[in-house]
Design brief:
Rossmann fold, about 170 residues, alpha/beta, six-stranded parallel sheet, 6 helices
C-alpha cells in the first residue's frame, strides 16, 4: 500500500473518523491541532497519545489547517463543502497547489474515485478534513467506514504479501 500516514486537525467528525480508521488499519497518524488540543466539544490532550497529534501555540483553527495541508501530499475533504472550515481547507489546498478531493457521498463511486486520487498523486501522507460532527451528524462514523472500505483491501494485501500458500 502506498499510504504511509494519515493526519488531521483532530476536530470531531471527519477529522477524528480519519484518525480512527488509520489506527484501526495500523497506518501511523499525526497532524496539528489548536492550542490545548481544542475541538468543538472542549480540550482533549489525550488525542496526542492516541494519534500522535501535536499542539500548536495558536488556539485558532486556520493555522492547524494550513500546517496539515502543507504537511501532506494531498487532502481529502468529507461532507458539505459549503461549511466555513471545508471552504478554508479547500482554498488553502488551491493556494498551495496541493491536490484536494471532495467526497460528498459515501458510496462505491466515491471510493473508486478516492483510490484513483491516491494513486494518481502517489499520496503517502494524506490529510483528512471535513465537517465537524455537530454540523453533519454521523459523519465521523461515515468517514471511518468509508476509509476502512477504501483502504482495507490494500492494507490486507500488503500485510500478507509473500505469505499466501506458505502455511
Amino acid at each position: 500500500m502506498r499510504l504511509k500516514r494519515i493526519i488531521s486537525g483532530g476536530q470531531t467528525g471527519a477529522d477524528q473518523g480519519g484518525l480512527e480508521a488509520a489506527a484501526f488499519l495500523g497506518i501511523p497518524t499525526g497532524g496539528k491541532m489548536p492550542k490545548g488540543f481544542k475541538t468543538e466539544k472542549g480540550y482533549f490532550p489525550e488525542l496526542a497519545d492516541m494519534y500522535d497529534v501535536e499542539e500548536l501555540i495558536s488556539g485558532e483553527y486556520a493555522p492547524r489547517t494550513r500546517y496539515n495541508v502543507l504537511d501532506s501530499d494531498a487532502t481529502v475533504i468529507f461532507g458539505d463543502l459549503s461549511s466555513p472550515g471545508s471552504r478554508t481547507t479547500r482554498q488553502m489546498c488551491l493556494d498551495s497547489k496541493r491536490p484536494c478531493l471532495v467526497v460528498e457521498e459515501f458510496n462505491d463511486f466515491y471510493r473508486r474515485l478516492f483510490n484513483d486520487f491516491l494513486n494518481m498523486y502517489e499520496v503517502t501522507t494524506l490529510n483528512v478534513a471535513g465537517n465537524r460532527e455537530s454540523k453533519n451528524l454521523g459523519i465521523q462514523q461515515k468517514v471511518y467506514d468509508f476509509l476502512i472500505a477504501a483502504l482495507q483491501d490494500d492494507t490486507l494485501k500488503e500485510e500478507h504479501a509473500g505469505t499466501l500458500g506458505t502455511t
